[in-house]
Amino acid sequence: MRIVLDAMGSDAGATPLVEGAVIAAKRLGCDILLTGKQHTLKRFLRHFRYTGSHIEVAPCSQTVGMGDNPTDSLQLRDSSIAVAARVVREGQADALVSAGNTGATLAHCLTSWGRLKGISRPGIATLMPTPKRPCLLLDVGANVDCKPKNLLDFALMGSVYAREILGRPNPKVGLLSVGAERTKGNALTLSAYTLLESSHLNFVGNIEGEQFFAGEVDVLVCDGFVGNVVLKACEAAAKMIMGGVKGAMKKSVFSLAGALLVAPSIRRFRKTIDHSEYGGAPLLGLRGICIIAHGASSPKAVANAIRAAMQAARHNLNAKISAEAERVCEEIGSAPAAAAQG
Fold first, then answer.
1. Smallest Cα–Cα separation from 109: which of 287, 282, 309, 228?
2. What kind and span of H or E run contains 162?
3. d(CA 195, CA 241)
4. Fold designation for 2-119+285-316
5. Interaxial angle between packed helices 15-28 and 38-47, expressed in degrees from 0 to 180 and rounded to the nearest 10
6. Model's pTM, two decimal places?
């Protein structure tokens, strides 16, 4: 198993990425190829005292910044993300991990790899914590404008991921909407409801915002505009809650004493909502495995993202998504090739 890591794109530069790669190489036993500026990456490997043979460097001369236009970044053919995508396309690595510019990552992977047969658009999925078990939400930003077929594709890709990677035998699929009744929603969700209902997927209907964290479904689908707003709002809410709890604990001697008693429970809760525990978000629907890590990923998060990439590659995820897409296309009365044009 060999994973290629875009080592130049995160908010904090190469430091947490290289350290995360070192952790993964030691714990997971995989080979890792770092793409980036050779001198910088080798200096960091020396800094973290890595002398093993599982990490190599693929040198490149360009980088894509977080604020760069994704389309314009395609002109940077020797950037760390361009080289990483090319390495996977040429069969030199099994999967790609990037904590860089999400739009640029999507653009390079889509251009270099292409879509899976039967999939109209790729989607980004992320695990959201619930009191029961994490729920897979997609799309969270790859497509701000969607058609009903796109939401159906997100549902089938999420179902395969939940079944193969999360171990959910018959994943429940929900459609994020403004009401539980099938007549509630906008034109997109109403049409998507009909498609989902006609498929073999375990579709359980609309899920309202107040049901979001109830853990009633394994996969929840929406367009990328809504999904990205939900994701960032939840991240901000989690930070606010944990900050409020810390502040309340420090107000008096009595609250500090009480904090010692509940500290184990708070640590467990914090672990539940910590994105670094989940590693990264799979970019589904392309002819290659890509895990998109948070731009502010810690070394632990980077190592977990590499682990997620290994899992997807081991389970032959893309072949199973393609098979599911063909079946769904037959159910809705269109051939896979025609659906891919939608």
1. 287
2. helix 148-164
3. 38
4. Isopropylmalate Dehydrogenase (3.40.718)
5. 60
6. 0.86
